[in-house]
Each structure stands twice: as structure tokens, then as C-alpha cells.
Amino acid sequence: MSWITRVRNALPFSPKRETPDNLWIKCPACSEMLFVKEYEDNLSVCPRCEHHGRIGADARLAQLMDAGFEILPAPKVKEDPLKFRDSKKYTDRIKAARAANPHPDALTNAAGSIGGRKAVVGVQEFAFMGGSMGMAVGDAFLAGVQRALKDKCAYIAVTAAGGARMQEGILSLMQMPRTTVAISQLRAAGLPYIVVLTDPTTGGVTASYAMLGDVQIAEPGALIGFAGQRVIQDTIREKLPEGFQRAEYLHDHGMVDMVVHRRDLKDTLTATLDYLTAARAA
After folding, report:
1. Strands 215-218, 154-161: parallel, antiparallel or unpaired by DSSP?
2. Domain ranges for the chain
3. The CATH number of 54-281 is which of 3.90.226.10, 2.40.240.10, 3.20.19.10, 1.10.3720.10?
4. pTM for this predicted structure
């Protein structure tokens, strides 16, 4: 034992204070260390670089909807219809995702109001298997649309997905036409369908209900596209422009109607609902 160790052990030093591991979060864009409480109070937006962090369905609904909204029950679908297995059983992946998330699958609907305007909102949870679109997501989308038809109000889809769920094969791809038909029912009834595109929205979700809104709103910096950037570059053998597939680029090229900061999103949806409702009534 060295003399330093003997002296240190003899002195009445206070024990090292334990610090919780969840007090700080690192911004993935600028690497700034942020106090979690302040970050969440700022709607999970970095106060330094304005990077919009990914948030869960419950947080999203609380930010967008008025108090007192109702979470709608998730439809029951046949699980693992193909008895799929890769490195794990599909059923095991679903169980793990449900253990880590508050809702039974990647799309959750809620009925209530936004700024006093009646609406049904469906939010995709990227943390649930990458927000992937399978039969449960398709049925939940249809259930949300049916509730909007019943309540004679708008349906708002907040998308966040890596695409279709490969473990369900062609059955996941069939959700693309199913959701498209549901949107046509809304239009036939004269009800608004609004899409809020968040980071990331890709694959079969982009190729179906994510790009069929009467109004397309995107969060700043959101990745929005079908195929990945490297796949496109390898296919066309050209370097893609800076910011390709980001919300601002798509807005400049007419694929997105507006890019709205998270703090302004609820007010923007309220104004949009007013406009679309008045236009259809006229």
C-alpha cells in the first residue's frame, strides 16, 4: 500500500456522490450535451442546433392534441402469419418490442381535438420495430379512418417508419393499397386528410399513405424518401445533391407543402383544419 493510499484512507473524505445516468442526453446532430429536463421541456428539440429528436407516440399526442383525448383500442390481427424466422422468431421480436413500448404495435390512434377542432390522430412509433408497416399498422390506420368517418372529422397521420415489415412479406405490402382506399373514403366523405412527416419516413409508407395528404407538413430536417440514398446513387451512378431527401429539399421541389418547427405544429394544424373545413363546407 502506497503512502498516498494510506493518507487517503485515513482522511474523512465523503463518499463519491452517485449521479443518475439519465440526467443528460447528447444531441445526435451537434453532439452538445443537454440536460434532459430542459431538452424535454423544449419538445425534444436541441436548443443549440434545432435538431428535432425522435419522440414516442404518447409524447407526440400530448404535444398535438388538447387535453382529454382518447386512445383508441388497437385492432386484433393474426400474428406471425408466415411463421417467419431469421436470427430470431418473429413472435419473439414482437414480444421484445411490446416489452419496450407502451402500445401493442407501431401505429396508435387517438380521438379528440386540436385547438378545439375535432380530429382523429394516428401516430407511428419508430421505436417499435422501426415503425414498420405490417397488418397491425394497416388495420390501425383503417380503424382511425373509420373513426374519423364516424365522427365526421379530419384524420391526421404522423408518420415515422423504415418501411414495410419484412417478416410479413406480401401481406405487409398489401397495406399500401388498403390504406390508399381508406384515404379515398375520407375524400368521398369530404373530410380532410393531413400528413405530418417526421424523421424518418421511408419505404412503403412513403409510397402509400405518407404522400397522399391533402396537405403535407414536415418537421425540419426529417429524412423522407423511398429507397436509401446510397441505393439511388449506385443505381443512377451520380452524386446526389446536398440535403437530398431532407424535408427542406422536398419542400423546395414541391413534394412537401410546408416545413414547420415542432413548437408551431399544433397552431399550424389548427389553422389548416380551419381552412380545409371551411373550404369543403363552401
Report:
1. unpaired
2. 23-53, 54-281
3. 3.90.226.10
4. 0.90
